[in-house]
Structure formats: C-alpha cells, structure tokens
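Hi L., both proteins are below.
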Amino acid sequence: MAFEVRGNGGIRAAWNGDAVGQAARRGAARGLALSAEHVRGIAVDLAPQDTGALRNSATASHDADDLRAAVSFDTPYAVRQHEELDYHHRTGGAKYLERALDTERDTVARLIQAQIRKALGT
C-alpha cells in the first residue's frame, strides 16, 4: 500500500496488492531454489561414498510456477542406499536425503523468508 499526503492535509492511499503478491511469489520461488541447493549440499555430505557416483548424481530443481522444489539422486542404487538401514558404510549412511531435510528445515524456512523480504524491499 502506498500513501500520499495531499496539500489540503488529506491522505490518499493506493492498494498495490497484486504487485506485492507477485513480488512475494518471486521471492518465494528464489528462496525455494536456494533452499533446494542448500539441502542438496547437505544430503551429498551425508550420502554414502564409494566411487563418488551417488554423490555426483545429486540434483536440485525447482518449479517457480508451482512453488515446488526437489532434490534427487540419480543412480540405479540411490533408493536402496537411502532406505537400507543394515548397510554399513565407511562414509555417509542411509536416509541421507531425509536427514538433510530434517536437520535443515529451519534453515530452509529462513532462506525462503529472507528472499520474500528482499523481494518486498523490507
């Protein structure tokens, strides 16, 4: 909302709700993209490492229109490595993606909030 003080002492208010909503949405989309990259980095550090193929297959993606983000690992064994709790690893371990999201939940929220605030100029 914008205010204008007139010479006669009156105040004129203009509602910019559509522009504000669009800016907030752009900020949220940017925050989601940054958050997905952040979670990807944490998940890579938590993932098992043998040859490095699993860690190197990690990808962060986002859809600004739907305000969705995803982190994925693209190897034939990524799901099995993630879910199998009985595997023993020298580095990393099971539930690497799940643990990354759980531990970084507050950081993800702060990243998105910061980008919305930045887009709104606050």
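That was the first. Here is the second:
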Amino acid sequence: MYQLSRGDKVFNGFNMILVGIFTLVILYPLLFVVFASLSDPRHIFDQVLLLWPRGFTLEGYKRVFANGDIWMGFKNAVIYTALGTAVNVIMTTLAAYPLSRRDFRGRNVITMLFTFTMFFSGGLIPTYIVNEGLGIVNTMWVMIIPGAVSVYNMIIMRTYFQQNIPVELEESAFIDGATDIQLLLKVVLPLSTPIIAVMMMFYGVGRWNGYFDAMIYLSDRNLFPLQLILREILVQNQMGDAANQAMMSVNQSEVSALKQSIKYAVVVVSSVPVLLFYPVVSKYFEKGIMIGAIKG
C-alpha cells in the first residue's frame, strides 16, 4: 500500500484548508441571504458576520406569499423557463446533429456561419424591430422564440455527437432500414442523455434568471416574470399594490425594516427552483463540460 510522504501530507492538508476557505467565501453570501430572510432586519448588522438568524421571524415570507405580483411572476417564470428550455433543446439538437454527420456536405461552412453570429450581431434595435415585425412584442412568445439556439451550446452538442456516437452504429441502423429521423430519435438521443441534461441546465438556468428581455419587450405587467418583479423590489424599491396596501397597517418606523426582510425573502424564493434543479442534472455536468477536452 502506497504511503504518503510527509511532504505529500503537508501539501494535501494545505489544499484542504485552501479549498475550505474558498468554499466558505463562496457559500457565505448564500447563507447570509437565507439567515437574513429569517432575521429581524433591525438586528442583521449588529455584528460583522451573520452566522445564524437573529430575532427569528417569518414576516418577510408571509408578506412575499401574500403578494399577488410575486405569485404571478413565479407562474410566468415557470412557463417561460419550461417552454423556452424545451424549444432551446429541440432547436439546438436539430442544428447540432446534422452538423455532426460526416456525410453532410457543407457542414464546415454552415458551422462557420453559425460561429460568425457569436461575434457579430445586428444589435438591440434591429432585434427589437424584427420581433416587432413578427408581432411577438409584449406577448409571452417574445420570451420563448428569440434566442432559440445558442451557438456555443450547439457546438458543444455537435462535438458530443461526433465523439460519442460511433459511425458504425449509424451505418448499421441505415442497413436495418432506419431513416435519418428514426436514427436521431431511436439511436442518437437515447445515447445522448448526458449532453441533453447539461443543455437543459444551461438553458433552464439562463431562462429562469433572465430579466433583460422582459424589461425591453414587455409592457403588460401580467406578463412580467419573477425576476422582473424581483428587480422592482430590489432596485426600484417597489412592492406592488397588494404589498403596499398590506403595509398601510404597519407603523412607518417598521416599514423600512419590513421591506428589507421582504427583499431577502424574495431572493431566497426565486433561487429555490434553480437550487432544486441542479442536483437532478449534476451527475451529468462533469461529463458535459469535459466534452472535447480529451481526444481519443
């Protein structure tokens, strides 16, 4: 059995301490928000570090769940994320698979044209004009259809198909009478679970956290996603009509503290879906990000 030398033990111990420090630095902001959402806002900054809830209270969460705007935004965010991620994965697959086929003529030229759009685009105003011409501005579809394909993700998926789907398997499927669509649906996709899961995570997190497109294209408040409602609360200090009416019964001296509690609670509520989704696909994440790193 291999015995670690004294130098190896010191090196490993130093690495563990260093990794532990980095972990605490990264994890503490999340813990701070969680503890602050459960604390009396007047006692959050009594000490330099907040290591546990101070003056435990659920008032912020009560106000959040009583706010109709937040529930409306949460519902819209779920719809945009679910439909948008489905469109993203389908369109990315339909673009990546043909470009991975060695018998597809012109695939290098088409890939180059796709890659060109990663560095050069029309900009915000032409994009807005195009979406307005399509008649999707201020509708739910403006949050789903534009950006249906990420070129970076498409290239990752194409590389996966090239390196993990044997050409011999495709040829044998054709010999058995399979069509291109049957090959994709019955052979390629069942063998591509890791990359599909990774694409779902990439697209899903991006869709859930996105607010800029909603801010530009949506004017109907009933279509606002949760992140735009969260922006109003955090940046513009607006709580919505329902929350403002609820605060009328609160003393003016407590309004500021209550707003702080609501801000922290909203951040936690908006982050929970992503935190629950990540463990589902985490086992595929390492394999997905290592695509193309090793040639074999």
